[in-house]
Structure prediction request, 420 residues.
Amino acid sequence: MGSPGLAVDGNRSPQRASRFCTKTSQEDDPYWYVDLGYSVTVDHVTIVNRQDFLIEKITPFDVHVGDRTDVTKNPMCGGHHRFCLTDTEHVVHCRGMRGRYVGIRLPGKKRTLSLCEVEVYAATNIAWGKPTVQSDVAYNGVASRATDGCRDPDWNSACCTSTPCQSNPWLRVDLGTEVSVKWVVIINRQGKTRRRLNRFELYIGNEERVDRNQRCGDVIYIPTNKNKIATNCNGIRGRYVGIRLPGNSRTLSICEVEVYEGTVTRKRTSEVRSTEGQDCEEHQAGDTWLSDDGEKNCICEMNQTVCYEVICGESGEDKPFLGKDGLWTCPEPAAEEEESGTVTGKRTSEVRGTEGQDCGEHQAGDTWLSDDGEKNCICEMNQTVCYEVICGESGEDKPFLGKDGLWTCPEPAAEEEESD
Prediction:
C-alpha cells in the first residue's frame, strides 16, 4: 500500500503511481487527511489523481476541513465531487472554511482511495488585527473584537461586538490600503440573538462613511442553522469594509469579520506546515512584510509567521509584481468578454420541483453535481436548485463535464464574416 505521506511530498506525477501515490486497501468509506499543524483558512484544495487502472476509483469523493481528528465529522467543502476522465487534477473551492485537518473521503462500500498529491491553498485574512470602529458600543462589545481572530460565537467568550439598539448601526474595518476583495466571511452569534444580524448590507470602498461605498450584493441573510456566511464580492476594490443594518431599533453584534483578497495568494500544503512553531518576533498580529530573501510575502497569524509564494492565475501563468505596499501582488485580471447567447439553462419545471428543499451542508452559492450525475445543483436563498444544462438555441449541442466537475457547454464555433 502507498504511504499516506506520498500525497504531500511535492511530487505531482500521476505516472508510476505505485511509487508516487498513496493507496488504501479496498474498504468501506476510506479516508486520508493531512495535519497542517494549526488552523488555517482554506481557499481551495487541489487533488492530483492517478492515470492508470485506478483512474475512475476516486469518483465521487468528499473534502472535509475542520479541527477534529475524526476528519469525516468535519464540515464538507461543497457536496460530492467528481473527476473527469480527461483530467489529472481537480480543484475544490472551500470558500473560507477554517481548520487544522484537511481530509479526503470516498463515501460508499468496497472502495479504494489513491492520491498522487493533495495541495492545500490557504487564504490570508487581511482584516486580522486591523483598526475597526462601529457606530456605538454597548455591553463592552468593542469593535476590535471583530478582527481579533476569535471565531467563538458565544457572547461569554468576549469575542463578539455589540452596538446599542439604534437606527442603521454599522461597523467598519480599515484595511490600511485599497485592495481587491474576493470574499468577506461573517461569524454571527449563537442562540436567539443571532436573528439580529439577518438582513444586513455589506459595503466596500474608499469612503469612511460605510453606505457611501459600493454595496457587495443585495441584502444578506444568514440561514437559521448557520452562524457563518461567506459573501463573494467579485473583486470590488476598497480600503474600507463595512457592515450596516438598515432600519430602526436594530442591534449590530458580530463575532468576527474576515476579508480575503480578490486574487488569492496561495500557500501550498508543505509551506503551511513548514511554518509551524515560528513566532512573529517583533511583528504584531496582522502585520505583513517581505521575506528576507525577497521571494515571498509573510504575515503574522495567530502569533505565528506564515510566509508564502504568491501564485497568480489559475495555473500560475501570470507574473506577480511588487506593489506599493512592498509586497508581491497579482495583476488585475483582464476584463472577461461578454458571454455568448448560448447559455446553460434552468427549466421552469425543474426549478419549481426543488422548491422547499434546504441546502443541507451547503452554503449560499455552492455548486455541485446531483447524486445521479445528470444535473448541476446550486444553493440559492437557502434552497437547493438542480437543473439540466441545455446548450445551443434548441439544445442541439451536448454539454460536457468541465474541470470544476459540473456540466458545461462547449464554446460556440466562430461565426464566418458576412459577405457584402
User: Anything to note?
Assistant: The first strand starts at residue 31 and ends at 48. The chain is about 5% helix and 30% strand. Residues 49 and 55 are 7 Å apart (CA to CA).
